[in-house]
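Incident review: delayed structure delivery

Summary: a single-chain prediction request sat in the queue longer than the usual turnaround. Root cause was a stuck worker, restarted by the on-call engineer. No data loss occurred. The affected request and its eventual output are reproduced below so the record is complete for anyone auditing the incident later.

Affected input:
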Amino acid sequence: MTFKHKQLSNGLTLIGEMHPAAQTVAMGFFVRTGSRDETPEVSGVSHFLEHMMFKGTDDLNWQQVNEAFDGIGAKFNAFTGEENTVYYAAVLSEFLPDVARLWSKLMRPSLRDDDFNIEKNVIQQEIAMYKDMPQFEVLDQARALHFGSHPCGNSVLGTEASIAAMTADQMRRYFSRRYAPNNLVAAACGNFEFDQLCDQVESLCSHWKPEESGRQLSSFDGTQSRKALRKENLARHHICMISPCVSMQDPRRFAASLLSMIIGDDSGSRYYWSLVDCAIAETASMQAETMDGVGAMYSYLCCEPDNAEKVTSIVANIFDQIAKDGVSENEVQTAKNKILSAMAIKSEQPMGRIFGLGFNWIYAKQYRTLADDIASVRAVTAEDINRLIAEYKPGHFTCLEMGPKV
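Output delivered after worker restart:
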């Protein structure tokens, strides 16, 4: 594998990892923007804008866009989070010029008023749909409770009110600022010629104008607040606990991932043996989310309403025990094997590699090979994780519960 990168005069960065033996190429644009970059007046605009990008350009309508992707057999999609919006596609290597041309066009959409008004209804329906999914709502509200006034607590979807009040002009201003070339990374992974891709993207995108598109960063330890919401129509009790964690720029993020695996993997973890295996809870998981300058550890639990108090008591005991005794070498090795296996399997295809490739550059302007990540995971010791536990105290958390008997 070979890595190359180039920055155009307008700030657009191109990165590529070449796999001569691959049969496909994954290519897309990483936009350093998400809900944390929004003001309350345009809450949800990043996700709304992701939808609008597929509505077409001045010379392509939405149907032609879909036909263009379909015609080259592309597996394509996009997603929006708190910090990034990503557009990606995987194709046979021979179709890379086609998909690069298509993505480059779509990065400058028309954002027509008619499309905006139609898609506004789609977004409002999506918000309503997620309100019927308590596992999503409890996580969304817990994040807002944990981060308080910190922008990482902003909802990705926004609210019904913010979407209803949003105008197309507001979206266009947001797009102009956040989709500036100096806030974008074009990434490709697989069997392709980097210089040819650069020449093509430069010919299509070099006229884009840079803008001020910075992001104010600050760490945050969380509010450690507690809140309970009664919803009589629910059949299950849902719990989300959030504690602080390291950022994406912190090399200890590998230790944090191992810790979350030890505590809350869906098999063989402390949560699993104490809650799921013995049928006290049907779901009990933990995930480390490392972000730009800040991080969080999320636990999500779902159980019978009558078991809620027992579940929270068991979780408290798990945190107390891990704070007192730390993790064992055997737990660390098991977690390493799981993470390394998943990492290697995911990286065997260009589509699996492109996200790590893009995010490492977005967050740290750094290229990391699979071997680099494997070495970083292998290097973590039980003592590293125990020091992380002592510093970040996962037992000191924000908690939001939602159920019929709260």
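Verification: The CA atoms of residues 56 and 176 lie 16 Å apart.
Action items: add queue-age alerting; document worker restart procedure.
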